[in-house]
Amino acid sequence: FFLKGIILEYVQGGEPKTRSIDLLDLRPDTDAIALVEEIQKGEPLITASCKEHVIHLVRRLQEKLGEKEDHKFYLFKVLRAHILPLTNVAFNKPGSRFITGSYDRTCKVWDTASGEELRTLEGHRNVVYAIAFNNPYGDKIATGSFDKTCKLWSTETGKCYHTFRGHSAEIVCLAFNLQSTLVATGSMDTTAKLWDIEKGEEIVTLSGHSAEIVVLSFNTTGDRIITGSFDHTVVVWDVGTGRMLHTLIGHRGEISSAQFNWDCSLIVTGSMDKTCMLWSAMAGTHIATLTGHSDEILDVCFDYAGQRIATASADGSARVYDAETKKCIAKLEGHGSEISKIRFNPKGNRILTASSDKTARLWDAATGHCLQILEGHTDEIFSCAFNYKGDTIITGSKDNTCRIWH
Questions:
Q1: Same domain membership, residue 50 and residue 133
Q2: CA distance 192 to 212
Q3: If you average pLDDT over each of 19-23, 58-62, 214-218, which comes out highest?
Q4: H/E run at residue 288
Q5: What are phi and psi of 36, to 5 degrees?
Q6: In terms of domains, do 42 and 92 share one?
Q7: Per the structure, how many domains does the chain have?
Q8: Which of 321, 340, 338, 320 is closest to 384 using CA atoms?
Q9: What is the pTM of this model?
């Protein structure tokens, strides 16, 4: 389950399917039993036998929503992770492990609680640039490299299951689907490829962009994937057939970021043209342009509920927009130079930004007030992440270190 919804998994005609149920209006004082009975009326998947379990999940979500939030983060550990700069950092879903990719051609797996290095994934012949866990499971890791290959590894043993070959240029982005059956890779060769995790083979090549693909993202149900390119467009593809469904045309600069919201109805895109755009995922139509930044937008994200959008810009500021009204509800000002990454905590009430001013900052998502400055890195921070509970942060910097904050 997520903080604002539950994913139901079921089998229909021998095929595993998933369906997401929104709980956007859930509050700590909502009557859980009445809510589930209401959902049950319109949702035949919630049978009498699993009703108790759903009520239990809803109550757990309510507990989370009710927790008081004034957590101060303190530096727990500095990891001199690699001999060359880091490229990316990522948590597994519970936050018990995280991974770092590096120019030193390796990916390292770390224990969050102790800060110990658990293993080094070696085998790539060039920069390990894109890395991911197959969350929510976390038993596999994918690494995408400038050596044009993607490797699939066991988190527990560090064994390499498969090396996916086929791209003719650097792999710069990758993603697992939520069902953990596919990994997608995006490359400087203008294509993306979908690979079967079990069989270790290519399923389809997504061809159609006229320039490098720099971002890709599955929706939660796993039937769609979007790719964003330097050709100024984002394409929506059908995962089952590899067919191009929509091309989102409107940006006047390279795409830097693209993401589905949680219920898969909206797509948000950020571009070097200084704007962020909102699109209908089903129709592929433009809904709104979010303006206000005076320089390139380097990162965008939805909160887990899909109610708010956060944008990070080279102008040194970040903004929060309401996805419903399309209005800017908060400006996050204070960084000394560009912000390259922005993340909501799972609850959606905090925002984390990483900047080339060598600091990361924690903000109140509703007011835009800066709550904390995470200082200590000696060079730009280009990667940051919350764990699922929202009580641990990792930051990755050009200073070759990774920092854990509790």
A1: no
A2: 10
A3: 214-218
A4: strand 286-290
A5: -65, -35
A6: no
A7: 2
A8: 340
A9: 0.88
